[in-house]
Amino acid sequence: MTAGGGYSVFAACMRYRLHSGLVNSMKVLVFDFFGVICSEIAPFLLPKYMSTDAAIAYKATVVRDADLGVISQQQMFDDLSRIARVPAQRLEEEFRAEVRIDPKVVGIVDRARKKHRVALLTNAIVPFVREVMAQHDLERLFETILVSAEEGLAKPDPAYYARLLERMKAAPSEALMIDDNPENLIGAKKAGMRALRFQTAEQLERDLALNGETAADPAR
């Protein structure tokens, strides 16, 4: 074995021990929705009707206001309709058509809840996200669900994470936030939580399965 190969094995072993200890110590696993369990929608659909820069700005302003409940879902689609020159109903249908639930991640969440308290913390408009969860029978997976538009708070505001933990009567040090957005992970850390960046279902399975808690079923 080469020196480089030996180092790689050593690094992998250290990562195993680190993640195993981390997950073992967590009583609460908190999952993001869009970008983790469900496909992202707005970042991919908005550029269809405006420039990339305009789409980024629109998401940070109008979509953000809808996520916070400052404006309603209908008001958001009406505003986008004015810009895109497309009926609001058609835009809502396009949003729904972009929904892709990752069955691998759903399976990981389902297995994780056997040994952890599992929650969902999402930045989302309502009733859209509630309807998506109901359609795919996802609400049953979570002990607690917080939706930004219903709470008037959104990630990465530390107060949003704190509200979830307060509802669950859980200490920040007992909770792990799983999110694809680095800014949201920073918010979680500011709230005193641990954080794990989601990239793929396979990566998440490895990171959470190191202690055998969410390992794939033998029959699969």
Fold and architecture overview:
The protein is 53% helix and 10% strand. Strand 4 (175-179), helix 10 and strand 5 form a beta-alpha-beta unit. The protein has a five-stranded parallel β-sheet. Helix 6 packs parallel to helix 11. Residues 7-18 and 210-220 have low confidence and may be disordered. The chain has helices at residues 3-25, 42-45, 52-67, 73-84, 88-97, 103-112, 128-135, 148-151, 158-168, 182-190, 201-209; strands at 28-31, 117-122, 144-147, 175-179, 194-197. The chain folds into two domains: 26-39 and 100-209, Rossmann fold (3-Layer(aba) Sandwich); 42-97.
State the strand order across the main sheet.
Answer: 3-2-1-4-5
Which percent range fits the helix content? Answer: 40-55%
Report the biggest beta sheet as strand number plus sense, adding barrel if it closes.
5 strands, parallel
The CATH superfamily of the largest domain bears the name HAD superfamily/HAD-like
Overall pLDDT level: 89
Tally of separate helices: 11
- Describe the global form: globular
